[in-house]
Structure formats: structure tokens, C-alpha cells
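Supplementary Data S3. Sequence and C-alpha cells for construct A.
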Amino acid sequence: RTPTGRTRVRQTKMGGRYNNKKRKGGGGDDRILKRDFKKGKRDNVWDPKKSRVPDAKGEYKPYCKENEKFEEYYKGQKIVPEDEWDAFMESLRTPLPTSFRINGTGKFALDVRDQIENKLFAKVNEGDQSIDEEGNVVEPPRAVRWYPDRLAWQFNYSRQQLRRLPFLESIHDFVKRANEYGSITRQETVSMIPAFFLNITPDHRVLDMCAAPGSKTFQLLEMLHGSLGEEKEKLPTGFVIANDVDLKRCNLLTHQTKRANSPGLLVTNHEAQHFPDIVSRGGRTFQFDAILCDVPCSGDGTMRKAPDIWPRWSVGNGNGLHPLQLKIAVRAAQLLKIGGRLVYSTCTFNPIEDEAVVAALLKQSEGSLKLLDMSDQLPKLVRSPGIHTWEVHTKAGKANSFEEAQEVAKVHPTMFPDPSYAKLPLERCMRILPHQDDTGGFFIAVFEKVAEMPASLNPAPKKLKGPITIKTDLNVVKDAVKVEFTLVNTHELRAEREAIAANGGAPLEPEAELLLTEVRGGGTRNRQGGGSQFGGLDPILPVSDEKVIHSIRDTYGIDLAKLPLDKNAVTRTADNTRPKRIYALTDGLREYLAADHREQLKVIAAGLKVFERQEHKDATASEGACDYRLVQDGLHVMLPFVNRQIIHPTIDELRLILQRRSLQLPGAEDPEKPDRAKFMDDATKAEVNAAVSGSCVFVPRISAADASALPAGCSPEEIAIACWKGKSSVNLLVSKVETDHLLEKLGMEVNKNGPKGGGMDVN
């Protein structure tokens, strides 16, 4: 609550649908009803009557999956053919299948698919296992028919089947573990669709406006990197912004997307309808090539996995969200570059949130947007065309006009179909119905921007903060002097004058290259020289100390022409001469952050962590020893650029250090501890002795005899691990979760209940 007693309401997406959350001691309550969006006084206490109460056995009563108003409303909308209505309703009452997609692209992803399909899923068809104890046929997992290369799968097993049939439990355990490892992503099938319509390339600037929980963002990052093909010594120049209005969900978003290990990721915390324009001091603009606009919605397309929607559904849910959805869509269109693509999507069947928003957006854009026909894309995807007319209902029933409806409810003119909409190609919209392919419900519309949006839609100037001064501009026009007065922030005016002075007094022009040279964030707007308006967040600083960069360059043999850490390395440590962690950015992301000289972006996370400070405890370490170790999270991005400190153990030695987490150095064996693991191969011992103390990388040496030990198509670089060479041993610097994953890849058994404990001790 604010000091005035008003309630702040924030949009957020939970479990594939959107709710609203009110700040309440750091928590929040699920909201989808119209009244939840009103500002006003409300008791800041939990009402126990709203909680479900378990019975004596601790079990919850199932939700009633009946709602007459729901059926009446959607029968009137005619989004489902009459002869399919019963199948539609029956599908909504059944649980949603579990679905996942295999992460990555190219040969690696195909090999993972083949292993899962041939070793794990094939067990379902073995012998009599296809029949459960109750005589029901157990269907094997099936590939999602429209997803390219069979890289997405779904299955639907009851809890009883999972408990009673071990081979099904093994599939369920695999999905849980592989999702944690990052080999797969659990994601609802329909939510996988939008990313395919954006046509992302490595140089694209991509914005995911309402990104949490992050599964779609993960897809976008994969596409940014995957389009590079097999070019190992090359990173994308573009980036993906994952934005969400809820700070807690931004932290979840950061956790979910870090598995993508991308230096092109930026996580921000803004209201989508107010996402800022970024313009450099010299006037360079940063519009986006692709924008995903998966807006907050009433979420009735998710009833199969969120049955609590059944009793709470009402026409007011969608009516209340329509204005916000349109604002977000308009803002997305403004941020899009000409020729760029915008995908608008919801997880609701409701035309008020779907076609009504699309039609209003097309009308307000005055020809700036073109609704694309995507019927030739993903040809095996079963979809229904959009509709041109729909009904508007309020709590009083069907409303025939805006004038009639506003007498009994708060409605908006854009909710109502207009006669001119008959000329719009709304049939190009796509609606996914659950009974068509055993999925959830979804809606998608794809736009291309062909001209700038009307100036009348531009957002109003924001109220100035901090010290304000009057800026005077004198211009000579046809022998007359034109004087303009503008109110500006004093610190920004001073910075602009300094930039002009540094440019020899000449007016600033769009920069050829933008570099991060100053601290951004980590303070208040009123700090000397400007500052972030978002206090409490860690700053972003360039790693400007040449000693740090050159130490990393020389130790690991990195060519800065190929990997420009001198330009693209940042830290969030206030003292950037001794950064605790170093993050790598893509060229495009570095320029985008450098252009934000007004510090309008509220940055939660940026780039990929590639180095961490690890000072040498060994007094005998050389004076020029590098205090920065490679971290496992960023190792596979960094490895193609690393030419020193690489050790090639045998496959048996790699297994050994993964199991024991430490190997004694050659010549440092302790006779009192004969059971300690040690290196066995002479060639490995020579490489270990040649490496300097500190961080090193183990990339297994695979002989012809060992080739079968690796998964099909898996290269030695894909199972590389970060280690630390100390005084007497080499220690593993890999989390227990990742260690288990690597051991599984190498054919070793791990605890099926998942990783327990584990650490990263350094000697």
C-alpha cells in the first residue's frame, strides 16, 4: 500500500496465464476478476474463506468443471463449430498433457532426440507394458506433429500410472532431471508456437514484453544463437530483452533463462505499456526487429491445467483486461522498426481480448501495420481462423452497443465490432482449440510494420525528476532568430554540454560505435552527474582496468579481436578495478546499454557470467597469476576462444574427477592418504604439470576405443568442465546438478531423486 492508502496493482503472468498481484508484505494474491483491477481501499489481510480446505485424508475436493455462463458466452461467439462443441467442452475437462521440447539446435539436439526416443520412450511398447493394472492402454509419448524435426514431445499419464508402472516413472523422472539440467524445457505445447513466426537472425534486437516465466524467452535465445549454425568462434551481435512488470518474477525469469548461457540476454523490470524508447546522445535510435507481445489475459485457455478458473470465470475478466492489452500492443508497434515483426498472443478464447484488440490496433495504426497470412508456416499446426464479428457481454447480459453497455458496466468502444472490420483480414488470426490436437487454448496474430505509427499515439512526456533548469535553443531561420525554451533535468543538460564540448563544440551526430565508459545504475537520479532512478539495484560498470583484461587474455590465450572483452566485459561490482564477477555482452547489447544515457532501463540481469574472482591461496603462485577463473555457466561460450590452460584427460580420468571432485597433482601424492584419487595417464600428467596454477579446463581426450563412451553426436567440448589447479590437487568447479548431468551423459548411474548437497571447494 502507498502512504495514501491506495493499492498498487501489477500485471504478472502465472502458470501460463496472467493474474494481478497486489503488494502485500512481499507476497500477492491471484486475481483475474474485473474488481481486482480497481484502485481503492482494501483490507491487507488474508481471508481464510478463500482458501481450499483439505478433507480428513488431506485430499482436496476436485473443482467443479461446469460453468453455464462460460458455455452460453462462447456458444454465442461461434468460435467453435457447432458439431465440435461437445468435443471442445470434453477436452477442457481433461488434464493437460505434460509437454517439453529439446533445447538446442542442429545435430546435438537431433542426437538427444534419438536417444530419448529409442532408449526411453521405446520401453512403453515393450511386451505387456502398454497395459496398466486396470487394463487401460498406456499410450507412448508422441512427438508434437507440427514442431520441426520431432524436437517437442507430450504425454499424459495419471498419478496412479506413474506410481504403479516403473517404466513410466522413469520417463517422469527423466523430464524432471533433464529440465533442471537444461537439456529440455518443460513448456506448454501452444506456448511454443509464437517464436517460430518472428524469423529471428543473429543480428536481431528482440523484445519479449511480458516474458515471465521465461520459456518463450529461452526459445528466442536459442533462435538467436542457433541461426549461426556450426560457427563456433562466432557470437550473435543481437540480443533478447526479457521484460516483466513484476520484480519477483523477473528474478524467476533470470533463473529460468540462465540455462540458455547467452551473452545476449537482458532482463528488465518495466510496465510493458510504458517500456522506454532508447536514444543515444548522438541520436541513434534502437527499435526492435522482432517483438513478442504475450499479453496479460483472463487465461481461460489454460483451464485444463488451472481448473480453479472454472468457478471464477465471468465475462468481466476479459472486459477488464482489454484496455491494458491494447495499450501494450500499441506500445509494441511503436517500438518495432519498419520491416520488423510483431506477434500478439494470448491464452484465452475470448474475442474481446483477441480479435477486438487486433482490429483496434490495425485501425489505430492507420496503415502502419500489416496483418500477415501465416497459413503456409507450420503447415501441420491445426488452427481455426479469426472471426470478424463477436458479442460483447456485461454482467447484465449481451450488449448491443457501447452506449447501452456503459450504462451498466465500465466498457470501452474498442471492445465492440465495427462495420469497417469486415474489410480487415481478421481471418489471418489463428485460434488454437484444445480438442483439435490435445493442447491448451491459444490465440496468435502476426504483424509486419510498414510505416511509422501515427504521432497522435505517442506517449505523453514524463514528468521531470530531480533538479530542473531551462534550456534555451537559438536557431537562425531565414535571417530571423528563433528562440525555444525547454524544461530539462539539470544533470542531463550538463552531460549534453560536456559531450558537445568533447566533440569540439560541433553538434552531436549518430555514433558509429557506442562504448560503455561510465557507471550506470546503482544510485538515485539526484546523484552528481546523473544516476539511475531505480535505487537498490546493482550498477553496471565496464571492466576498464587493463590489468584485469590483459591478465585474462594472456592466461587463457584469448584473441581480443575475436572476443572483445576490452569492450564487452562488464561487472556489477562497485569497484570495477577488482570485479568479483565478469559478464560478457554481445556487441548489440553493449551498444544498447551504452545508448541509455538517461538510465531509463531498470536492469535486473545483463549478459552471461564468464569469469569469477578466485584469488590464489598458494604463496608460490607466480606474481602475474590471473585471479579470474572460468565458470561452468559460460564455459561453452568461452571455450572456442580459449587456447591455453586446456588439459585433455582420458575419459576414465574425467569420470573420476566428476565422481570424486578432486584429483591429486602428479608428485604431490600423500602416502598417508592412499585412497585419494589421482591421475593415471602420463600424457595427462604432463599437461597438468605444464599448466599454471589457477583455473583450467578439462576437455576429454577421446581415443577410438573410447568413442562409444560418449553419447552419439556428442563432441568432447560439450562435456568440458571447469577446474582449479591448486598446490596439491586439481578440484572440480562444477555444481552437483551439472555433475550428475555429465555423469549421465557418460553412462554413469546417478541418484534418481536428484542432486543432493555438493559444493565447489577450491584448494
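Construct B, processed identically:
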Amino acid sequence: NHVDEDIPSDRAQLWSKIIETRRILANHNVDVGNVELYSRSWMPSSSQHNVEDDSDDSASYFTVAQFNTLAKGLSTGPNNLFPTPFLDTDSEFHYGNYGGFTELTKPEVILDFDWLRKWRLLEVMLGGDDACMTGDDRLKSSALFDILALEEVDEYHSFFEPILVKDGCYDGIYQPKPYSPCVRFGWYSDGVALLWKTEKFKVIDDECIDADGNSKELVVKGSFEGGAAYRNQVYIIVPLQIKGTDKCIVVAATHLKAKGGATNEQIRQSQASELRRRSEQMADELKELGWTEVNILILGDFNSEPDSESVRSILCEKGDWKFRSAAANDYDDSYTTWKTRKNGTTRRVIDYIFHTGEDGLQCKEVLSIPSDEMLERTYLPGFRYPSDHLLVAAKFHAGVSRRNDQLPEASNSPFEWLTNFQSLRHLVLPSYIVGDVSPPPPSSIGSASHKHTMRLNALHVGCGTSTVGESLLCLREKDVCGNRLQYGHVVNVDIDKDALGVMQNRWRQRELQTQQLDDITLGVMDWRYLDFKSEESCRLALDPLYRNLVQPLPNNSNNELGGYFDLVLDKSTLDCLLCSETDVVSVFLCEVYRALRIPTSRSESSLDADYRHSSGGVYVLVTFHPLEFIQQLLAELPGAHLEIEYEVIKRKADIVNTIDALEVDEVVSGKNQSEFDPETYLPPASSAWISGSFSPDENYRKTITVFTCRRLPNPKQEESNQTYALDRQLVREHIESTCDKWYQTTSPMVTNEREATLRLDFQNAILSQQRAESSLKEEKVTLDLKTCYELMFTEEEKQVLPFDYFIEDWEAYCQNLRRGEDFPRQGMTINTAIDFLKEMQ
């Protein structure tokens, strides 16, 4: 019943305590140098599924976190005073053994709960390791997570509850263990806590009748069924309504039986099955009470790895409820706990967020796992993290459920710009993108069952409703050692939200088809709104991905982000932007270059741990602009170092009706010519050249050019000092000069012949109107803008430049050249008309 005397009075004082804790840790830290929490970012979840996303429904978005805090009673040192008389003098923890974490540099500092560690734990709980949160954000924000499950909490009533519940923004429930080992070591019982933001959720208190006709509460908490070995583990199950909606979430939190061995795993499996059964029972009761959109979240430390029976008991398909796991990384190379005790080092995935999705609950993003290189020598805990478990978190959207037969017809009507995927396939194969890469040494492979997989990342800019992203995820290759090469993450960006929605729905159908094939596992498909006119839009769409880089630049003093993508694919997006403002084109080219992976030198030993390639990322551009123009634009891009090759393709525009009749557009010149092998290609479920939705005209039959631009290291910079970004002002000036040179010198709109014709037309128009000014020189006589428009443009040009657009260009011309007040804005002279055409073409 004691209460900590160090409770802060407000949020500002709380963060002052946290900042002071950092300062003290920094003074004691001699090895690491940095005591900031590990930087983590939000990345797309691999558990996307069939849900209609309504981005305007902000009330239905929420974040969930799961965190084993490492109990104070299981990690104290010999200098701590025990508050209870129940000390087990025969225990290895007698008089405090730091929970076995004796390999830490300074366990007496890192693990001192009352002095420092409690404030670090709060920093994690409030979202302090989210890379998007700045110091000011933390002071203004009450907390990042809407739902928070905590385990090994033995100071709940004395410390965490007064801050998070009584003086904070949460409501919560705590369930202590009945036979906690902390008590035997002279401390308070540890247990499980479940908290939720009161501004976001409301506990459902509808009256429910049990089998005997008696009223009962829906909230359930307690110990698991079984003997003494089962009953010491506890759980909490709470039904929550998302305020402002008719959606509800059954949330369960638990901490299952610890320690290895078949007997303990059998206990965990029984406990997991019971927890699922109780959660499903509560969800079914809510549906009986009239709640139509019900989902389930199960959070906890399961003390079992992903292939264990206890985890399978949650994920197995039985009954009406189907569960998925929200994971930040593939399980084979991830961890949620990584610790070194006196008896050795263990690295495992044992903390989980399980969720259903039949009624519209979709996991959108998960919090990334720190890369191996980030961690301290003794891993967790340490100066940079207060627990031996990472907090795992996910962002959810409780959208509108939509069944397969309700998907819009547009989901089967893709559209392909310029050419089909087969014609580009040889340029986007994983083996071509990675270039010359040495496979892991044979000693690291060990056996045929231990194969590495290299998963590439691709960015499809201006995707529209193309099937290219789907086709990329279908590509599979193997290197000489049998290791797999494939795309693991494809990000599609576009300014058209409707097009992105069409792609999502079509992909979900394909996922359902693929789930029936046991030997095919698709990668992650992601869709993001991005407007290259907006710097903020670029940062919101791409920076969360860049923050998740496995190998951030070590000497990145400018805090630059980038380098996530092995491939950036552009089918005519640059073409469209070149018809827009120069600023937009400069932003686009800078973002493309920033996105490309920076080439690195990798040793054989590093390849053994992390099977990655050292080649730079590749920008594949499909364009109908003249070859020489694009070549000059890219080859002389200021600050960029690119190896540029190209192919000229002659398109075949005939519509085909069967997959067997697919034709590959013909490569007529250039490099990288390669035969198309249909045996190694798994076609998508639907494609533009099958659906018959595309009706090409003569323009489609023109030749196009495909550029492949591989990023090279900057020879003027050391590898550790390579930069992601280009100087946008220099790029802008380069675009302007390139366009001016091309359109005014190489391929001008105003040829000598056209200028002569235009001067004659202006002269005739002046004479026909019999103007009083006709005595003046023709160069000084103005014609009204409507007449000028009719004289200056052909009928074909007027189709793409209506009069309204002409007036907009005229006003921009006058403003850009800063004409004086006496400049005639209501009309043009012949010289002004010619200058206007040269300037604005």
C-alpha cells in the first residue's frame, strides 16, 4: 500500500525527471557514449488483409504496445533494502544478484529501479523510442500508445498507477501473481497490467447473463485453470468500445509460464488455449448483445518462440475466429528479448501482439526492431534500454469489413502505362538488381535446410492501378548456393487515393488465392499517398521506411534519411512531371536519388550474419521523351553518381486475350538485351493486357526508352561519409538549363520557318483591322490576347492548350519577367509573342 514519494506533479516535471536520468546515465557510461533509447520507426506490417481503409475515419485508428518491464524484485542488487520479510535465503537471488545480469558494465547503475530505471521505463511506455517523437513532442504529448499491456510489474500501485492512471490519461486493471517469485526474494508481487486511454476507449459495461440466469461482468481477470504450476500465471480480458464508433475490441493481456522444457511448454500451451477460448467467449457474448463489429487483441510475454505449440494454439484456424501476428521482422532474424546472464546469451522472439481481422481490424504498421549493430555489448538491458525485453507495438485501423464478393469491379481493371511488365522483367530481376554479390560462405549455410533469403525493397512511383508491384513480388530466383533472391517489400506511391484503393482491393483478392498454395509466401505490399509537390508529403510517406535501415550511415552528421530501396521503378511519372513546374521535377529527382541504396563494401563475415548485397540501388525509368534529352538530364545531375544504360523498345499494342499469347515488346537498340523466359515467371491474377480495359491509339505504338541508372559511390567521399540527398537548388538549376538548351536550341518550338509565318500572320491581322496605329512599326503594335491565341497555335496544339491555360501561362510569363507597369498585359506585339513561345514552350 506504499506510494512512491517521487511522483511528479505534472507532465513537464515527469520529462524533467527523464532528462535528468539520461544525464546521470551518460556520466556513468564509459563504453557506449550514447544513452538515448534505441531509435525505432514505424514500418509496414506483414499482416495486411482484406479491409476497406477509410483514411478520414481518424477515430478508428489506435496504437497498441506490449512490454515486459523486468520486475524490480527480479533485478535488484545487494545494496537494495528489501521491503518485506519473506526472503528466501536459499535462493540464488539471495541479497540481490541483479537477476543474473552480472555481465553488465555497471549493473548497480543500470538496474537501480528507485534511482534511475523507473524513469527509463516510463520513457519507453510513453513512446520515447519512437524516432518521430522529438523532445518537444514528448512534453506536449500525454502518451503515444492507446493500449498498453505490461508484465513483471511489481510497483504498479506505488509508482506506475499514480502517474499513468490517477494523474495521467489512462484507465487500467492490475492482476498480481498469487505466488510471485519476487515475494520469495523479499519484494512485492509482480503481475500483469492492462491500460487504455480514456479519451479513446470506454469499457463496455452492458449487462450479460450467465448460463444460470445471473448477471455477470464482462471484464475477466485471474489465474489460469489447473494445478499450482498453472495458477501462478495470470491474465486480464477487457471489452473496450472505440469512442465515437460502434466498434469494440476484446483485449487480453498475459504472462505465460517461464523456463524451458517439454513440461513447461505443455503448461504454456494449455494457458494460451484457455486465454484464446475466454477471449473468443467474450467476443461471442458481445455479438449476442448486439455489437456487430467485434475483434480480439491478445498481448503478452508467451515465453515461447513462434514455432512453439503455445503460439500455434493462438494462430491455428479453428472455430469462427482467425488470428494473425503483428511482427516487425520475419521471425527467423528477429528478437524481442536478447540478454546475457552469467550462464550465457539468449536471443528469442517471445513477446506478441495477436489480432483478428474478420470484422475490419487491420494492422497497418509495426514498430521496428533495433538492428544488431545498434545494441550494446551485453545487449539488453543496458544504458540505452531499461528492460531485457523490447517493447513491441503496432498501429491498427478498425475499418469497415468488406467481403470478397463486395469488392468493386474496378479492382480487376488495371491500366499499364507505355509497356507491360514482361518487357521490363529482365531489368528488374533480383539477380540483375543485386549485380555481383558473393553468397554467404558454405560454413554459414550448414545444411540444405538452412538457406538464406535476400529480400529486396522496391518503390513504384506514380503506380496508378498498374500490376507491376504484384509482378515484382512474384519473382523468385536462386543463387549458386541455393539461397533465395526475391522482393520482400514493394511500396506503391501515387497522388490518386482512389487508384491506391483499387490496388489494395485487388491485392487482397490475390492474397486470398495465394493462401491456398503452401509453397508460396508473398512479401509485403504497401500503398502510400505521396504528392511530390509537397516536401511534407514526401517525408510522411518515406521517412518511416528510411528510419528502419539495417545499416544507417555511421557519420551522418546532417541526420539525413534515405537509401532504403534496391529498385525505384518509374513508368512515365517523370514524363508527366516534366510538363509541370521545375520545382516539382527537382523534388522528384532528389527523392528518387535519396531513395536508392548506397553501395557499400561488405566483408565475408558480415555477409554470413546479414545476407545483403553491396551494389547501389537502381532507378528504372520508362520514358517517351527523347533519348538524348533524358540522358543529358540524368547523366549531368549535380551531385549524383550514376551508371546509366538504356534500351530502346518498340511497342506492340495489339490486345491479347490469353496469358499464352502475351507478347514482349521488342528491344531494338541499347544494352542489357535478354531473352524472356516464361517458365520462371509467375503471372499476377489479373493484368492490363488480359482484361482488355486498355485501348491504345497510334501514340502508344511509338518507341520508348528504358533507362537503368545504378547508384555508384561518390569518389570524393569516404564510404562512411556518403550522403543520401542532393542539393535541390543545384538540381533545379540543372533542370532549367537542360530544358532551355533542349527546347530552345536542340529541338525548338519556334523554328525559323514558324517565326516567319507568325510574323506574316500578325502583319495581316494588323492590316485587316485597319488600326490607327498601323503607321507605327509592326513590332510595336499589339493584338488582343484572343487573336494572338488563334494565330500562335495550331489546331492540334489548341487541343492540349485551351485558351484558359494560355491565359494562365501569359500571366505567369508577365510575373516571372517582372514587367513594368507600362508593359501591355492585355495584348502582345509580334516580338512579345515570339519571346513568349520560346520562354513558355
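The mean pLDDT is 79. The radius of gyration is 32 Å.
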